[in-house]
Write the structure tokens for this entry.
Amino acid sequence: MNSKRNMLAYDRSSTGLWVALIFLVSLNLRPAIAAVGPVLAQMGTDLAWGEGVQGVLTAIPLIAFAAVSPLVTFLARRIGIDMSILLALLCIAAGDAIRSFGGGVGIWLGTVVFASAIAVGNVLVPVIVKRDYAGHVAMATGVYSGCITAGSATAGLLSAPLAQMWGGWRASLAFWSVPPLVVAVLWALRILHNRKIVVASAAVRNSPSAQSARSQSSRGVFARVLRRPMTWYVTAFMGLQSSAFYTMSNWMPSISASIGYDASTAGVHLFIFQGIGIFSGLLIPKLMNVRGNQVCAALTASAPMFIAGLGMLLLPHLMPVWAFVGGCAQGASLVVALALIALRGRDSAETVVLSGVAQSFGYLIASLGPLMFGVLVQATGGHHVPLMVFTFVAFLQCVVAVIVGRPSKM
């Protein structure tokens, strides 16, 4: 029992402001991706890419999330949760730089690098929140998901103006390598602050008996989580809400431009979509325990995206309205998805596994969204058919919301 406590202490959080650093980490988990949408058309023109190739580029981060998420558990077990976060921040910065200055191959390679690093943060941040804010999981989830949305919205708003000011999209995208470096320095200071805890627990952590117990325990936890139907309901919800967010984040400027809005106004629409999610994400935790379940929260978070899809189909010139309505959905849905991961995991070990599984398969589902949207735009020459598919996917999210909101009895 003491050995187990010592092993868990290896990554024990500090107090005060050191704990809150996780929210700064969250700010850096989306800008590298969100900055692409407003300059995607410029990239396509400069590189002679059609919408299909652009769609592939926008899907790569989600495919990387799917591929890397199951491996994060092994990385965290090997070097610790805090060191894994530090490595992720450094790789986000490196990937941004490679994408901007590595030439044609660098665009693809850099995207894979920073997306893989973001996947590490995606999996481990909910685990840290469950560990450090055990008594306030829904509240803390709302705050850190709000930070994720704030970072995304800021990148979406500034990307096009920075490209105009600095003479191209490469410099604009390179800017987003700076914030993760700054946070990496602060996170390294946090690790040094905890150094005595790390050293004290290292011997127990690396002892043969502890390694054997961890190996047997992790296999059992993984099998147990996979057998649970709730695991796959959470995964489906994560995938569907992520598909909606990334599809709109990458293609909303294009939709706005197709109905007559200029590039700056289209960027504002994207900012509304991403920015309003900060507030909806902070409000949705109030509905996370209505009648002892999360059905109300999950459905309230999902329905506005379906309404926004219908609106863009039937009344496209009201795009600012649909950007606002859809934004309410995406911010709240992210909070619900991440909170469900924390709530449905019975302990830290299960939460790590559930987070990895839900984000791996969930983002694999999500990658089809922006990819198919781009392919359908190129195939049909317009946005009507892609929006029909998008709206149907949003409806499926509403159905899954009712199922995933009921706590598992297993």
